[in-house]
Amino acid sequence: TVLKEAVTDGDTVNLEEYTASSYISKCTDDVTGSKTIITHPNQKPWVTTEVHMLLRTRDFRAGDKEALRKAKAKLSRAIREAKHAHAQRIHGHFKDTAQNSVAVEKSILPQALCLTAADVRRTLRGVNPRKAAGPDNIPGRVLRECADQLANVLTDISLSCTVVPTCFKTTTIVPVPKKPMVSCLNDYRPVALTSIIMKCFERLVMRHIKTQRPPSLDPLQFAYPSNRSMDDAISTTLHLHSHVWTKRAPM
């Protein structure tokens, strides 16, 4: 492929040159365009595109009372439906988290990490296209849509070089305001943007590490098991606390 030829010089493959030259970004810029979207700190999470359109429609109906009344009715109905859909998404998120104890796994011998192009392709197809790109400026949509073209290239280059490129390990720190009015540096939350390709490699290694977990792992371990998060740890702690106080309460 063209991507593989760009980094191959005879029998050697220069992954650093391949990534640092932003060849993927160049190909992306040649066939796609960019769009700037403005977001506000106080924007509600349940506001959808339909609600935005109805808000603009209501503003343009200010001179016509009958049209304004109908526009307000449609807007109120759309807001109720959007809030309900957002609430259902939140309920579904907490419903899917695992609250039961971890099943005891059989002890197996550690296996060597073996990656295939199919594993890389499956991981690239699972990339969230809405995630922000890292310092390499390669968007997630490109990696997901071009997974078939990039899987073999990234797999062959990585296995032949046996080294992680420096550009994959760099991180861009973006300060995000915690509230609408910023008065000091403490009002910013630092967000680290890393390369999406590096995140895909980390997921591949993470799957291998999870298969090597010992059966003696504490069932209250929430840091690394799948479908578990800090919310589960907080819920479990509150449940145990309330259970103890209920038993100690006088009858």
From TrEMBL:
It comes from Electrophorus voltai. This is Reverse transcriptase domain-containing protein. The lineage of its organism: Eukaryota, Metazoa, Chordata, Craniata, Vertebrata. It comes from the Eukaryota.
